[in-house]
Amino acid sequence: MTEKASPVRVAVVGAGGIAEAAHLPAVRAQGGEATTVAVVDVDLDRARAVAARWDVPHAYGSVPEVLAEARPDLLIVCTPPSAHQEAIVTALDAGVSVWCEKPPALSLAEYDETSAHEGPAGPYVSYVFQHRFGSGARALREQVTTGGLGRPLVGICHTLWYRDAAYYDVEWRGRWATEGGGPSMGHGIHQMDLMLSLLGEWTEVRAHTATLDRAIETEDVSMATVRFANGALVSVVNSVLSPREVSYLRFDFSEATVELNHLYGYDNSHWTWTPAPHRHGASPADLGAPDNDEPSSHTAQLRALLASLRACERPAASGTDGRRALALVAALYQSADTGQPVTPDDLTPDNPYYHSMSGKPATTRSTGDKEAHHV
């Protein structure tokens, strides 16, 4: 009889809301495949309080401490964006894999610098793009891969959310140096990653951005047209000004339209599969809709990540696969600022938008205070 592998030892860095709302529950839901051994925060009292609520045995005030003393196999980084790189690099250099909240980095340069600390066979850093991992997305991806719905032609990828002025009272939000961008970077990146995981490589972006109503440095709305290598054209809108919130994706293929209408997560009931007129009478199942129903969630992505770690394989949403959405955001900002289309080949190290989403030199990041280290 094969002996069951020991649980993957997990440490959670950043004792804020997303840790308790998503990551700690996701670890607990793995059925013994993983266990949380420590919570880390620069506010040690906060770390201890979260650890106590979740029956986690240890709390620490720094990443080097937890790596040296708790010896985790996986570090989950839940800090604000400007604190991502330091935690990731420290863990990778210690031989520990990382799962990090979005956005992956503040710039493509930072992403590439961080990736250089991975080993050829690990450790790896992957990023939270949980919408890829629900059964609806997996089923549609299979249909795109096999051509079961015909050619992708037209798409919509809209993240229309609402964040009031008080949301931006948190010091690091709405600033290029500490958040890396506005809703294109911090909100719509989830839907854009799902779009890219379904449609593949993008080839051109034309975009506009504006700061219409919030007192922030970054945009509060963006609109773009994205052209894909397969010929499809997609409308992309990201907003924090929309009182009726919705996350809406639509993909028109030659054989069917597939739609996803949700907010912060979906199950199969949020998907609609509509046959083209010449396939009248075809059921969702005929079009490839899944029988099983697994919602999109941190739990689903973590399950896949743990399987990759055990197999010593690079996980999804890492490496070039994790970089794709960040590159699209950089192109969106460059196109909006310059009024010109942007292609992936334009995003080279001699391009200012490779180094900063604003296209301007990065300013000093305010990460010394306690508020900047948890979300």
Summarize the structure.
With 375 residues, the chain is α/β, with parallel strands linked by helices. The protein has helices at 17-28, 44-53, 63-69, 84-93, 108-115, 135-146, 176-179, 183-186, 189-199, 284-287, 298-310, 319-338, 352-355; strands at residues 8-13, 34-40, 58-60, 74-77, 97-100, 125-127, 152-162, 202-210, 221-228, 233-239, 241-253, 256-262, 271-275. It folds into 2 domains: 8-130 and 303-322, NAD(P)-binding Rossmann-like Domain (Rossmann fold), CATH 3.40.50.720; 131-294 and 324-352, Dihydrodipicolinate Reductase, domain 2 (2-Layer Sandwich).
Brief descriptors of the model:
single chain; 375 residues; alpha/beta; Rossmann fold; Dihydrodipicolinate Reductase, domain 2; 2 domains; 7-stranded mixed sheet; 6-stranded parallel sheet; 13 helices; 23% strand; globular; disordered C terminus
